[in-house]
Design a protein that fits this description.
The protein is α/β, with parallel strands linked by helices. 44% of the residues lie in helices and 17% in strands. It has one domain: Aldolase class I (TIM Barrel), CATH 3.20.20. It has a six-stranded parallel sheet with strand order 5-4-3-2-1-6, with helices on one face. Helix 1 packs parallel to helix 3 and helix 1 packs across helix 6. The longest helix has 14 residues. The two termini are 19 Å apart.
Length: 135
């Protein structure tokens, strides 16, 4: 990742958010890390997050995009994510369960050093540009 985007992550809550972040990353020619909201796998489900990421990727195919789904502390949510092909995950469960899930293909990604949560962003693209260093 470039110095501009290293250790930065944008938390998306909608397709609009994901597309806005991808548009800025494409404009700045930087890789992008998107994450779901905390526990999103339990609320919206892995298929919803996968669809959002796939549509954002389709709109901006040249952005090097990493997507991370938060599964809370539920091993079943991790299993559901793995079943739909999502492997980069967050999981707050026990180390014992974490090790078993990792053996099944889960890659647990720690929180980024710096995050932007777009939940209340009135202008997601502007917020992403300011966060990612595009002023």
């Amino acid at each position: 990742m470039s110095a501009t985007s290293a250790n930065k992550e944008i938390i998306v809550h909608s397709l609009e958010h994901a597309r806005a972040a991808c548009a800025v990353a494409a404009d700045l020619k930087i890789p992008l890390q998107l994450a779901s909201a905390r526990g999103a796998a339990l609320q919206t489900g892995p298929m919803w997050f996968k669809a959002v990421i796939e549509q954002a990727r389709a709109a901006h195919p040249y952005v090097a995009l990493t997507a991370i789904l938060d599964c809370g502390d539920q091993a079943g949510a991790v299993m559901a994510a793995l079943r739909v092909g999502l492997t980069r995950l967050r999981f707050a469960g026990s180390e014992t369960i974490r090790a078993k899930l990792a053996a099944m293909g889960a890659e647990f990604v720690p929180a980024a050093a710096s995050t932007l949560d777009l939940l209340d962003a009135k202008e997601p693209e502007g917020a992403c540009r300011a966060f990612l260093g595009g002023h």
